[in-house]
Amino acid sequence: SELPRGFSPLSEVFHVYCVFVLYSLFVVRVSTWYQRQRSWRSVFFFPRIV
């Protein structure tokens, strides 16, 4: 099995690393947004009974 022309393992690793970084940033953004939505929703619809 020959590697395609112009293929280098370093660029492949860099591509995977970039995808991983973008995906992790996206997950962090969505999780923070979800926590904010959940906190607002709990504040508005489920007031704490103290």
UniProtKB/TrEMBL annotation:
Domain of life: Eukaryota
Organism: Nymphaea colorata (pocket water lily)
Protein name: Uncharacterized protein
Membrane-spanning segments: 14-34
UniProtKB keywords: Membrane, Transmembrane, Transmembrane helix
